[in-house]
Amino acid sequence: MTRVVVAGALGRFPVGGHAWADLNLILGLRELGCDVWYVEDCGEGSWVWEWERQELVTDLDYPASYVSACLEPHGMGDRWCYRAGDRWRGRSPEDMTEVLAATDVLLIRGAPIEVWRPEFDLPRTRAFIDVDPGFTQARLLHGHASLVGTVDRCERLLTIAARLGAADCALPLAGREWAVTRPCVSLTHWPPQEHAAGSPPSMVLQWRSYQDVTLDGLPYGNKDRTFPDFLDLPRRLGRPLRAALTGGEPTLLTTNGWEVVEGWRATRTADDYAAFVCSSEAELGIAKHGYVAFRAGWFSDRSVCYLASGRPVVLQDTGLSDWLPLGQGVHAFTDPDGAVRALEVVREDAAHQAKAARQLAEDVFATDVVLPRMLSDLVV
Fold it and tell me: Per-residue pLDDT tens for 179-216?
């Protein structure tokens, strides 16, 4: 049996969307018959935003309880460790050292390991999955210490930049070799749902995730650069759109006809997030400025959940057409008029679009499609 230890960020980013990005990978590996463990190592200290009290906390109980709540329902209540410095919750560092010593693949998803401990050298293979294409490579070029330290200790580097190497793709390689993979979704845990009649299309909107990056003098930014062009979409469409908003000013949206819910409340737990997705007619995705500008074919780990639920995806174009079939379940747009046209198609042809969305999830993004290809290159 192949043993995989997934290193993620469940506790450091305790909201449902981030949780499912890790969970789809973890649960998909288990469904393939892998012996899966989870580790989250924060380095010397843990700094996590506690949503309920709206303050930064440094104790481990809050993030570790979130990790446990995500994993325990899936039979992994004793197969994880959350660690910061010499403090830990879950399995002890000694236990995890034994686990890592018998591990085939240490799979690091997105978040760098802040302090590289000797036990992380024990697995046969280490692999890093870039889920933030363009921004990851820019940080490598700028010498982001923990990211460089993590990536350079991995024998395999993967990225969800589907158009890597295309003539018009501005994503740099940062002096490294990358293999292309895709975001994945566990179809078992994301079954198709009945049509959400009368519900608006929705989005999960983090206004600004982090600082912009600069490459060759050009800035690559966040959604605060792209979203203003689409502020009046509800008026153009003639009906509401819903946003679970984090970090932005709600009145900027509500005065333009948006329904706004507080992002962390709407998507706090894994179950909350699934309920938000399934209550939507479709996903409307406004991409980060950098994803649009890099033209790397970025597709969201959130969008695959919408598709699996039978919810069509209407996404700002990041270079999708040469690797993903469009018009049936997934629609790409470059301007407000294109977004309106796509949203109208989704509503007018609801049953067919819902079926096509689920089919795309099964054919392109299902864990049993994505992960065997990944593992075949990683297990040596």
Answer: 999 999 999 999 999 887 789 999 999 888 778 888 88
Give the CA angle between residues 18, 218, 207 to the nearest 5°.
30
For the ranges 54-68, 150-164, 168-182, 207-221, which has the lowest average pLDDT? 207-221
Helix (H) and strand (E) counts in the chain: 15, 18
Are the C-beta atoms of residues 317 and 332 closer than 8 Å to each other? yes
Altogether, the residues listed in the chain come to a count of 380
When the candidates are 1.10.3470, 3.40.50, 3.40.390, 3.90.1420, the CATH number that belongs to 3-184+367-378 is 3.40.50
Residue among 97, 98, 121, 95 at smallest CA distance from 108: 121
User: What pLDDT, in 10s, does the model give residues 58-71?
Assistant: 999 999 999 999 99
Asked if 294 and 133 count as a contact pair (C-beta separation under 8 A), the reply is yes
The answer, as to whether pTM is greater than 0.85, is yes
- Beta partners for 38? 6, 80
